[in-house]
Design goal:
337 residues, mainly beta, Tachylectin-2, Chain A, five-stranded mixed β-sheet, 3 helices, 44% strand, binds beta-D-mannopyranose, glycosyltransferase, transferase, glycosyltransferase activity, Mannoside_phosphorylase, Glycosidase
Amino acid sequence: MKNEMDAIVKTALIADAVPNMPWEPKPADCKEVVWRHSKNPIIDLHPMPKARSVFNSCVIPWKDHFLGVFRVDSLSMDPMLHLGTSPDGLDWSIEEEPITFISPDPALGKVTNAYDPRLCKIDDKYYITWCNSYYGATIGQAWTTDFKTFHQMENAFLPFNRNGVLFPKKINGKFAMLSRPMGLGMAVNYGDIFFSESPDLTYWGKHRIVFTRGPGKWERVKIGPGPIPIETTEGWLLLYHGVTDTCDSFVYSMGAALLDLNEPSKVLYRCQFPLMTPEKIYETAGYVGNVVFPTGVIADGDTGRLAVYYGAADTYTAVVYAHIDEIIAYVKEHAWK
Ligand code: BMA
């Protein structure tokens, strides 16, 4: 009991307890700060009749089990958001039909192209943000309280923008979001992370740069926020994707930075090295090879354990584990000076 109490006191994580979260201890021979789930990928190619692949998705603890909002690319390759349920956060049943949203205004158009969702609980509501289509890629927003009825809200920004990631609480009385404005198309070679705030989740402004791509080669092409920021006593831990280019393609890795708790556009530490790069066959080979794209996280406030969900090669869903204190120590030790 004493050891358990020590663990509770030591961890920097500020989060509710999730004692049933997915977890595997770090293998004895692992020298990294993140380690992969031994049975990755947890969602394989073509997992249901109408789905080509399921990836870049996010999950939350719900009652005694887990819920998720999944990016499902259909056989026609059109991405949509689908609800999933799981007893343990690893074995998922995903609904065949996409989530339908109650629209606030017909002028917004139907949700026909939706991908890379993030899921964020703020007070008593669960918010989904995703890459929506409205004359180009922008940030769609919706809320639910029961995961049965989903209320769409206004798009947060003008096109072009991707990777809209809400903070799980208001900061200085305002809703807060990270996003990555960028140009038309996937292959543009720029994209930096910005912070924005809003009194009501409709009108977003006071946009501030958080950090730009580079300076390391592994993230020289573009960057984008990953899962919702993780609150710790040391700052907001932001896991993000960083993209580099090679002779024939891009490579997506996972990086980490600590942002100021009260002023998240202020970067306290930014790690020089990625925490994870594509290594396993399910990350290097698929519809888009060499992609690890983190979008979801479950954090246990009692133990400091993290399970990070990521899309692998735009084809599979996979999980890595980490301990918050180890990540923070690593980010600080290897921060750009
Ligand atoms: C980005 C997004 C992601 C995707 C990644 C790698 O631009 O489209 O959904 O995982 O490219 O293809």
